[in-house]
Amino acid sequence: MRAFTYTRAAEAETAVGALSQNAEAKLIGGGTNLVDLMRENVERPNEVVDINRLPFSQIEELPDGSLRLGALARNSHTANHPLVRERYPVLAQALLSAASPQLRNLATNGGNLLQRTRCYYFYDVTAPCNKREPGSGCGALGGYNRIHAILGTSEQCIATHPSDMAVALAALDAVVQVQGPSGPRSIPIGEFHRLPGDTPEIDTNLRHDELITAIDLPALPVARNSIYLKVRDRPSFAFALVSVAGALALADSHIRAVRLALGGVAHKPWRAHRAEEILTGAPASAEVFRRAAEAELQAAVGYEYNAFKIELATRSLVRALTTLTERHFA
Amino acid sequence: MSFTIKQILTGDLPRLGQAPPLAADPYLIPVSLRVNGQEHQLRLEPRVSLLDALREFIGLTGTKKGCNQGACGACTVLVDGERVNSCLTFAVMHEGRDITTIEGLGEPEDLHPLQAAFIEHDGFQCGYCTPGQICSAVAMLREVAQGDASFVSADLTAPAVELTDVEMRERMSGNICRCGAYVGIMNAIREVYEQQLTGPRA
């Protein structure tokens, strides 16, 4: 691991200032991903700014009924907050499905959004990777690409975003609150992460000198009937091959409101807008669910080892919708 | 050199001694760590993990290094009562926190109920993952007592959880045992869980 200088930020301005002055500086929250990447020499900051003492650990209801999740609240605390469990079960489940209890106790909400891909070629500094080393090529395209993306890929990168939390946030229309040198701004979750395009080295639209302070969840009644379905190689402590964050409200057997997002399929959490359009107002039936899911996956492209994800994602969408419909009538 | 089971379970092993200082280094900074109630004044590079600080600088070798990447749970310790992977966090970040390792849970002559239960139920074979398993289980039982949900909890709005086998497996999935002593581990934890439900030890 490259040696670095360590400072502890007492105020957000200090942290932002350190980033502004040093392009190689990194913030550390839980560190569960950053420390690992530093040990592998994938991340090589020469300065690490500890932000754990900043006052962003609260989870509080705002006057407009939305819920503000502090960027430094731990994933475990967020999952078990009574209002998260009651109003946004999809988020509680997504958080609880991720990693292990020990990791969730360290991992912060802000850091969760900034996780790097778990693509093996990204982690292996001897392999080509356009994300780690722009212009070096992509080891995954012609390599072992079982865990890779099927939607929104580019010739440069077929990595997936590893977060479960972010998939739930995409379905919930969360808003990321950030602070930079010129003050605060808000980034809708759908615009936070990026598709790889020709710049796969840039994961998000957060600028280098910005700090995440909170994630806001809008008041969303449909989220009370919501689910996080995660399909993986073993039933615990594994990343998703495919996941679905879904919320559903019915009126007279017709779909009044629906939210769907897919994980494990793209470089960002994939909000299933096409499926939602087809479903909204339609009868809640297996045939409609299948048609909507197929429409969402119509543009999907499979590679040598991950083509199975297209049908897996389709069926996972159908299963999530079926489960939510059963719960509605239960 | 051979050790007794109680020594392995409580981390009561010969000290390796202080690691040699990393030469005169501009990156060395003073760090004060409170481990098992005792303050330790160290000078560390900030890249020293909490795990390495415990083992190599303080000499508490009960906590084990398995994968060193957060996947196996052998390095599990308690920070302010919560279980964490000590390999994935820098020691310098933990100034002022209360750190508890396997050595802080019980002594060979005064075992923690979980340490005693692991012996009683053969909750190990080689013993390498055991300190992490026990630290993890201590925190896990507290999480259950305070009603924390898990991914397999059917009802997220229920205020209380029952520690079924399915719940226990999910909640202990951050600790791997390559000897496969899971049946004994489960039985040991269950015994203490049931003691806590009915017995005087809350």
How would you explain this protein's 3D organization?
Chain A is an alpha+beta fold. Chain A has 12 helices and 12 strands. In chain A, helix 5 packs antiparallel against helix 9 and helix 10 packs antiparallel against helix 11. Chain A is globular, with a radius of gyration of 20 Å. By secondary structure, chain B is of the alpha+beta class. Chain B has 2 domains: 95 residues, Ubiquitin-like (UB roll) (Roll); 86 residues, DNA polymerase, domain 1 (Orthogonal Bundle). Chain B is 33% helix and 12% strand. Chains A and B meet through helix 2, helix 5 and helix 6 of A and strand 4, helix 5 and helix 6 of B.
Helices and strands of chain A, in order, run as: EHEHEEEHHHHHHHEEEEEEEHHH
The CATH H-level homologous superfamily of the domain at 223-329 in chain A: CO dehydrogenase flavoprotein, C-terminal domain
Helix proportion of residues of chain B, in percent? 25-40%
What overall form of chain B do the CA principal axes indicate?
globular
Largest β sheet strand count, sense and barrel closure of chain A = 5 strands, antiparallel
Shape of chain A: globular
Describe how the helices and strands are arranged:
The complex is a heterodimer of chains A (330) and B (202).
Chain A: E1 5-8, H1 12-21, E2 25-28, H2 34-39, E3 47-50, E4 59-61, E5 67-70, H3 75-79, H4 82-87, H5 89-97, H6 101-106, H7 109-113, H8 120-123, H9 165-171, E6 175-180, E7 183-188, E8 211-217, E9 226-231, E10 242-251, E11 254-263, E12 270-271, H10 273-279, H11 286-296, H12 308-329
Parallel strand pairs in A: 1-3, 2-3
Antiparallel strand pairs in A: 4-5, 5-8, 6-7, 6-8, 9-10, 10-11, 11-12
Chain B: H1 5-10, E1 29-35, E2 38-44, H2 50-57, E3 76-79, E4 82-85, E5 98-100, H3 102-105, H4 113-120, H5 130-145, H6 165-171, H7 182-198
Parallel strand pairs in B: 1-5
Antiparallel strand pairs in B: 1-2, 3-4, 3-5
